[in-house]
Design a protein that fits this description.
- The chain is mainly α.
- The protein has two domains: 41 residues; 67 residues, Orthogonal Bundle (Arc Repressor Mutant, subunit A).
- The chain has four helices and four strands, in the order αββαααββ.
- Strands 1-2 form a two-stranded antiparallel sheet. A two-stranded antiparallel ribbon has the order 3-4.
- Helix 2 crosses helix 4.
């Protein structure tokens, strides 16, 4: 079992290390504030998980290709109108049936469906793969 002087030494060492860490953190913070005020800040680099973002023709694209969500407002309106026309012909259709009729991927079709739901142009009944869509 450690004796009283050993415990006292351990506590003093811990206190010294803690004060050094606090001083270092304070100095780094002061340095950051001063360099920000002076204007000597270099821009932060992107992390490995943050892709570059580019905007072209009103479409926001990230570094990944082939992902759904690359619709211009005109394309979204066009796809929404065709989905609405299909739902008027066959109410209660599921997304798989709609995607087969439109020859479109179900993931890609999800975007116009969400837009139509938000605009309250279609009603939704069911959950997950059993979701049925109806024109209002």
């Amino acid at each position: 079992m450690p004796t009283t002087p050993d415990i006292r030494t351990l506590v003093e060492n811990f206190a010294n290390e803690l004060s050094q860490v606090m001083r270092r953190a304070t100095l780094e913070e002061v340095h950051a504030k001063l360099s920000l005020a002076i204007g000597e800040v270099t821009p932060k680099r992107r992390g490995p998980g943050r892709p570059r973002v580019s905007v072209s023709k009103g479409v926001v694209r990230t570094g990944k290709r082939g992902r759904p969500g690359k619709f211009t407002p005109e394309q979204l309106e066009k796809h929404g109108a065709s989905v609405l026309a299909l739902l008027k012909k066959s109410p209660g259709a599921r997304s798989e049936q709609l995607s087969a009729a439109m020859k479109m991927n179900t993931d890609t079709l999800r975007i116009p469906l969400k837009a139509l739901i938000q605009a309250k142009k279609i009603k939704v009944k069911g959950q997950k793969r059993g979701t049925m869509y109806f024109a209002r």
